[in-house]
Amino acid sequence: INRKEYDRVNPDNVEFTALLALAFWDTQVAGASEELTETARRNRAAILKELRKVYVLRGNIECEIRQRELIGLLNHMKNHNCHVDRTITNYREPDGILRRIDIAYNASVERRRSKEWKLLESIDDRKIIQHPTETLYLADGNTPVQTFNICYAETRIFIHEAFPSLTRLSQQEQDAIFNGYIQMFNFIDFHYRTQQIWGDSEQYVMGSVLTVVDINDDDQWFSEDEGGDHRELMKESGRAYMVNHLAVITPIFKKAKISNTELYALLAFSLCEIDSAIDAEAISAFDELRSEVLLALQIYYKNEMGLDDFSWRLGNLMTINHCIRVIFCVFVRLNSLLLFRNVPRSLMHIFECTLLFSISMAPSRIYSCDVSMT
């Protein structure tokens, strides 16, 4: 069968279901009794009647033309002697990449949740943050290191499960990719989680799956004995970075209102845009991955969201991806400055993990981001 014919008609979710039902009753007619043939005819007519109601509710005045297109697609499949219901279903499969990311990501989140709970359970003075639907805890000066370690380990597993094509690369390339991706993954994850859980709140941001950072309580960010003579400066710098960071990215997430599926696509796009110095094979793997995600996303927009023009939603994803990269550049430059200060041990641990990616980058590129420090 010519795939172009299916793509030309491009049935949405309701039409897809109707096609499967019509295909089922069409298969019952061949060699059937008169009674079964009449039942199939009545059911087929009922399906088309319900479909017309849907078109009317949608304000589609060309419903008869659209129905003829669907029937034409059905006949086209039958004329090519294909198994109609299986063929229709198979044409929905290009979104498999997003489904794979979905499964890998949510499995990773649940493992992180379990590990974080075991960690928090051992802290006697843990503080619960009030929320109507979630059980959340205030992050203190020590928990960010431990929750980052959990995220660090689980993100490696996530990459292997969500993007198995990358496992054919050398271990050195895989390490370079991971080290360039971990913090961008972290940024996307906690911004999306913050938007989903806290909405327009200007006080809290998610630090991990179960921990929350109170922006107004910067004393909680560091242990009492950390920072030395530069403690107040460190607090001011950290707070300024956080406020500026959120001022850039929060409005974009708020405006975009990305869905879970778009989140999975964004995680893939950010992986394909890392700044690590990678070889030609890795670049080729990223090109294939990007194309696969774009195709799946196009099908999602058309079939799941019913959008003919989805350029603005795709543009929102690309804008978020770009902003995350810019913020990452600021983060790296801030970290490089803190290397020469009396840095809190907790932050230093996270900074060292983040800066591992510099092993696979040209040294000049670490400071080449065109972003002014404020």
TrEMBL record:
UniProt keywords, alphabetically: Receptor, Transcription, Transcription regulation
GO cellular component: nucleus
Segments forming domain NR LBD: 161-327
Highest taxon of source: Eukaryota
Signal peptide: none
PANTHER family: HIGH ZINC ACTIVATED NUCLEAR RECEPTOR PROTEIN, NUCLEAR HORMONE RECEPTOR FAMILY MEMBER NHR-86-RELATED
Organism: Pristionchus mayeri
InterPro entries in the record: NHR-like_dom_sf, Nucl_hrmn_rcpt_lig-bd
Protein name (Swiss-Prot/TrEMBL): NR LBD domain-containing protein
Molecular-function annotations in GO: DNA-binding transcription factor activity
